[in-house]
């Protein structure tokens, strides 16, 4: 009986966390460059149950020997192991702003061991001087003339340097070269992650590596192709209709576990107030 409380309780916790994750996806359905999260729900290790039987050996002293009779396995509940971002390309949305740049996936290699497709990102520098990565190309110029993200991180070129511009009257080629008139000012730095599922998700659509090391340059990685579109932004890859359906499914699963928990509670109440009553 008490094991049942723990089993349905773990199911309710897992579905609650999944609902919170889906709600966050829905809230960012219109956030540029946002990557929807997916949950991984696993079960706890099952326990193998056996019953203890006592057999009397026909001896003079009536010696008794205990034996085990297999009952079977029993589940001990589930838990949400982790959440993983989905790195598929979002749809492009035209903004007509020169500081908005969409990074378009081309051919991206697939990891031979895991079958995971790589991903490309804009290369940024945060306040601490370390690198972080994003697909949100909504940039702006700070008061010093540096190209920055909406969160204030510096956009880096392919040499890892900050990009300084005179004004927002510039042009970006398909290869990511920033042109001021006929002069090439810098080339946008693009990084490639062979295992994007190993990246750590931060706020404002940013990602960092687990160990703090820098990702490899996409321009120097074999088999990686990409292009850029100025005046456009990559939208969120959240499927709103699918997310709503998944939220309803998670809610129904939570509700089912809740009803089972209430049934266990009523059974325990009856055991205490009726079965255990002494007449």
Automatic annotation (TrEMBL):
InterPro entries from the UniProt entry: Flag_bb_rod_N, Flagellar_basal_body_rod_CS, Flagellar_FlgE/F/G, Flg_bb/hook_C_dom, FlgE/F/G-like, LlgE_F_G-like_D1
Domain Flagellar basal-body/hook protein C-terminal: 229-272
PROSITE patterns: FLAGELLA_BB_ROD
Xref: Pfam families: Flg_bb_rod, Flg_bbr_C, LlgE_F_G_D1
Residue ranges of every copy of the Flagellar basal body rod protein N-terminal domain listed in the record: 5-35
Record keywords: Bacterial flagellum, Cell projection, Cilium, Flagellum
Protein's UniProt keywords contain Acetylation: no
Localization per record: Bacterial flagellum basal body
Domain Flagellar hook protein FlgE/F/G-like D1 stretches: 117-178
Family of this protein: Belongs to the flagella basal body rod proteins family.
NCBIfam families: FlgEFG_subfam (TIGR03506)
Protein name, as recorded: Flagellar basal-body rod protein FlgG
Native source organism of the sequence: Sporosarcina psychrophila
């Amino acid at each position: 009986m008490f094991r049942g409380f723990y089993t349905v309780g773990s199911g309710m916790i897992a579905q609650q966390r999944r609902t919170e994750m889906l709600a966050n996806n829905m809230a960012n359905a219109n956030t540029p460059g946002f990557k929807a999260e997916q949950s991984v729900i696993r079960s706890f290790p099952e326990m193998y149950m056996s019953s203890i039987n006592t057999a009397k050996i026909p001896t003079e002293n009536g010696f008794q020997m205990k034996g085990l009779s297999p009952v079977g396995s029993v589940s001990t509940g589930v838990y949400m192991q982790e959440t993983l971002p989905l790195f598929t390309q979002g749809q492009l949305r035209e903004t007509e702003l020169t500081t908005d740049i969409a990074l378009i996936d081309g051919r991206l290699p697939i990891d031979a061991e895991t079958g995971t497709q790589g991903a490309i990102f804009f290369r940024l520098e945060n306040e601490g001087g370390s690198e972080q990565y994003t697909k949100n190309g909504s940039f702006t110029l700070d008061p010093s003339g540096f190209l920055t993200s909406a969160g204030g991180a510096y956009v880096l070129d392919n040499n890892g340097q900050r990009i300084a511009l005179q004004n927002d009257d510039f042009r970006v080629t398909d290869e990511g070269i920033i042109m001021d008139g006929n002069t090439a000012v810098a080339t946008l730095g693009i990084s490639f992650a062979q295992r994007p599922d190993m990246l750590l998700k931060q706020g404002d659509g940013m990602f960092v590596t687990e160990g703090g090391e820098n990702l490899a340059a996409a321009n120097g990685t074999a088999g990686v192709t990409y292009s850029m579109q100025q005046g456009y932004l990559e939208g969120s890859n959240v499927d709103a209709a699918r997310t709503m359906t998944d939220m309803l499914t998670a809610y129904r699963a939570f509700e089912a576990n809740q009803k089972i928990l209430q049934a266990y509670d009523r059974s325990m109440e009856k055991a205490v107030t009726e079965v255990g009553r002494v007449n």
